[in-house]
Amino acid sequence: MQVAKKYTLREKIKFYWQLIKPFKHLTMIVPFVLGTSIALWELGYLKKQLFFLSFLILFFGVASVYIQNEIADYETDKRNTSETTGGTKLLVSGKVSMFEAIILMIIFGVISLALGLFLVIKYQYPIWFYILCLIFFIIAYGYSGWPFMFSYRGLGEITLTITNAFAPTFVFYYIQTKHFSILPFLVALPYAIAVFAQKVLREFPDYEPDKLAGKENLVVKFGREKMSKVYRFCLILFIVSIILVDLILIIIYKLNPILFILTLYPIYIAYKFLKITNIEKSFYKNYKILKPLTIKGFKLMFDTALIYSLIFVLDRVLFK
Q1: Is residue 149 part of a domain?
Q2: Range(s) of the domain holding residue 279
Q3: Does residue 108 sit within a domain?
Q4: Of 83, 128, 148, 243, which sits 20 to 30 A from 266 (CA to CA)?
Q5: CA 276 – CA 262 distance, rounded (Å)
Q6: Domain count, the chain
Q7: What's 291's domain CATH number?
Q8: Is the pLDDT of residue 212 over 60?
Q9: 2 lies in a domain?
């Protein structure tokens, strides 16, 4: 009989930290920065208490959701040997028990919801805003959580587009400004398309383990070849969306056109991705191509939102 290995408290804390996927928190921190930057451009200042409190709400909420994803993807992760996709495999390896993961998920979720309620009451936000945030939280949980399990029903990609792009950009804009605007949704559009495209890209190397685990994402549902065309279309749409958003921000919102030289960078990177995937038509089967594309795809996502954040900050500081 094999005896389970015992870990020190220090090792356990390290495993818990890895379980919440700190690197992947960037997928939510970046739209947090974007929404806050748009608010700064509009107001000319930031409310510091709201900034730090909303960041804590985000951190604990995201940690809870990512742990839930690990729990839900346990069977998939047992079959997935990929180094760049899949979960942390801490549950599979036994470094963190299922019981520990569930307890941590509940604790972090409760902290996030409690802090959110405190923010709404203390700073007198309308109750509909808390309900809206709660709905977004449930949708994020439902990505892999029962009974929704969107990622197992071909809805995971669109779920991430909402919860990792449009929703946080608007929410953190609203926390600072306390009013509705179409602007955060508009500016989040290129980032949202990049999130969708990146999710599809990451599903290619996971195709076999996802299929065996019954995870019916879009790549499993429609096949790798068809979804490779969708991925390439998303890259084209991404480029078009940047051009469209830039023109609207310059013409309607009167941002300085010089600043939009910065958006040529994500356009260039997306064009390079298109070129690579055009030369290697079956890139979706080639792990040597998928691995660097996946890593650079994350960078493209983050850089896009951060560039727009920088544009709004620079326009406020230099030209207003």
Answers
A1: yes
A2: 9-319
A3: yes
A4: 83
A5: 23
A6: 1
A7: 1.10.600
A8: yes
A9: no
| Angle (nearest 5°) at CA 114 between 180 and 123 | 45
Q: What is the pLDDT of residues 250-272, one digit of tens each?
A: 999 999 999 999 999 999 999 99
Task: Say which amino acid occupies 226.
Answer: K
Chain segment 102-131, per-residue pLDDT in tens: 999 999 999 999 999 999 999 999 999 999
Nearest to 263 by CA among 250, 253, 274, 273: 250
pLDDT tens digits, 281-295: 999 999 899 999 999
- Residue 299 has a CB neighbour count (10 Å cut-off) of 11
